[in-house]
Inverse folding.
């Protein structure tokens, strides 16, 4: 479980995060939802340690991360796997080498054969068992995301962070990526945090959703609760999606619950 | 300027704390030696051979006094090559080739979040990405400079012989006269200093790239410009101190 308490962050005097407190629960897909420029990515970067918050604390399973000793921060970081928006695969390495990289760096005690087995397992787990020898430039966007997931889970991560895993993907591939992330979360009982503004992801995998608006947390709840939320900014966000509007219209016409989508 | 220099020093410091394991550092350094050194042999060979050839022909053209022996041409080619042309011109050429490659490579890694990926894994990205490049440059620049010295003198020999400006015997006589071994040491010291300047400045510019593809190009250009200026300043300072 990751606990965030009163996080604040400003850039050149402009506040981006205004005292955000929330909890990312273990074994669940925690979604950070919000429009562009609401502070989702900044919050995620503060949580994974790529950025230092001005104020507040972040705790990973009871261990304070912010402003702690370098060794303790490193220990926590080594339990983190992250899928970046652009996948961030290392261009100079093959797919298999990309997945092997964190094992080489973080678990020097593993033998080459053990590493190879683990890479094979992870690539198979994301459905890319035949793509190990390909270079990142030779695979599609969806495959890159899968490789990113395989690299993230290779060292048995405890916390998985995904920065807009669906960006640039077609709806079907997006759905498959969402399902894969959800399966991995449940299978390994890890804490998964996903940045998204995709309503399909919300209704598909949103076990716990946190809605950010202008640097503030306005709402949190589950995918079953979100369509009935009484927060105007959230309602506006949700119903800006044509698909949800259409579903709502059908719901109104048939009087069946939209939540059954 | 002062702020940038302060940032540069902090960057150098960040590279030296939380270093990766020796085996990782060694493998990375060898890989970079291939990129920086082996892949630069061709351009260094071409440039140095022609500079030696042109130097020989131009000195011969200017040396019209019959009282000055022709072997002086060989002597001057050797002195100019060892003291200045080989270390400085080679380093300037490498600033263009290696410096832009380092800045462009790191800049691209930065904007495509590959540097962030390393940091999230708990890897000191400066140590992993930059330190091997600097070590490889410090190892390879002197070797390339020695190669440039040899090829430049050979280039002068071939040019002098083929154009009939100087006989082979006179050239070799000039090459062998009044040789000061310290000049080689001086040239190697210069090459090590230039290697550090080119690799560190280029890495600094690339590592802190922000924005997109345009900024990567700008970082590469700035890295080459700054490296060349640093080489010229260091060249003067070292000559004033060590000669």
């Amino acid at each position: 479980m990751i606990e965030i308490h009163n996080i604040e962050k400003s850039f050149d005097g402009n506040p981006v995060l205004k005292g955000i407190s929330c909890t990312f629960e273990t074994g669940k897909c925690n979604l950070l939802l919000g429009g562009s420029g609401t502070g989702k990515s900044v919050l995620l970067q503060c949580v994974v340690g790529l950025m230092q918050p001005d104020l507040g604390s972040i705790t990973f399973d009871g261990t304070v991360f912010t402003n702690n000793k370098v060794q303790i921060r490193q220990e926590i970081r080594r339990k983190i796997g992250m899928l970046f928006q652009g996948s961030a695969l290392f261009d100079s390495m093959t797919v298999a080498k990309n997945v092997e990289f964190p094992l080489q760096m973080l678990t020097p005690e593993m033998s080459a054969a053990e590493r190879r087995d683990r890479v094979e397992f992870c690539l198979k787990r994301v459905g890319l068992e035949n793509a190990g020898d390909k270079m990142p430039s030779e695979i599609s966007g969806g495959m890159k995301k899968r490789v990113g997931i395989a690299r993230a889970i290779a060292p048995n991560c405890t916390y998985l962070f995904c920065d807009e895993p669906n960006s640039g993907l077609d709806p079907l591939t997006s759905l498959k990526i969402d399902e894969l992330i959800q399966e991995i979360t449940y299978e390994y009982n890890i804490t998964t945090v996903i940045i998204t503004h995709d309503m399909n992801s919300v209704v598909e995998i949103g076990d716990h959703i946190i809605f950010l608006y202008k640097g503030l947390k306005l709402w949190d709840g589950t995918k079953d609760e979100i369509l009935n939320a009484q927060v105007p900014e959230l309602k506006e966000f949700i119903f800006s999606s044509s698909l949800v509007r259409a579903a709502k219209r059908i719901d109104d016409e048939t009087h069946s619950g939209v939540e059954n989508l | 300027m002062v702020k940038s220099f302060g940032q540069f020093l902090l960057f150098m410091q960040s590279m030296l704390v939380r270093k990766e394991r020796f085996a990782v550092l060694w493998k990375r350094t060898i890989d970079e030696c291939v990129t920086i050194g082996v892949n630069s042999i061709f351009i260094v060979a071409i440039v140095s051979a022609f500079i030696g050839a042109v130097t020989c022909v131009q000195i011969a053209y200017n040396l019209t006094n019959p009282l000055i022996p022709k072997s002086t041409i060989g002597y001057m080619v050797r002195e100019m090559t060892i003291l200045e042309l080989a270390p400085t011109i080679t380093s300037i050429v490498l600033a263009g080739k290696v410096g832009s490659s380092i800045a462009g490579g790191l800049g691209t890694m930065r904007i495509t979040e590959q540097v962030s990926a390393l940091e999230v894994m708990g890897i000191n990205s400066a140590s992993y990405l930059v330190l091997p490049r600097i070590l490889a440059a410090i190892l390879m620049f002197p070797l390339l400079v020695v190669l440039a010295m040899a090829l430049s003198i050979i280039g002068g020999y071939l040019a002098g012989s083929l154009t009939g400006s100087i006989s082979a015997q006179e050239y070799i006589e000039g090459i062998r006269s009044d040789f000061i071994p310290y000049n080689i040491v001086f040239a190697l010291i210069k090459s090590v200093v230039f290697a550090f300047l080119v690799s560190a400045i280029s890495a600094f510019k690339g590592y802190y790239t922000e924005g997109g593809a345009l900024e990567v190009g700008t970082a590469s250009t700035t890295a080459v410009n700054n490296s060349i200026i640093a080489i010229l300043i260091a060249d003067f300072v070292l000559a004033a101190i060590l000669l």
User: Anything to note?
Assistant: Residues 71-111 of chain B form the longest helix (41 residues). Chain B has one domain: 20-242. Residues 20-242 of chain B form one domain.
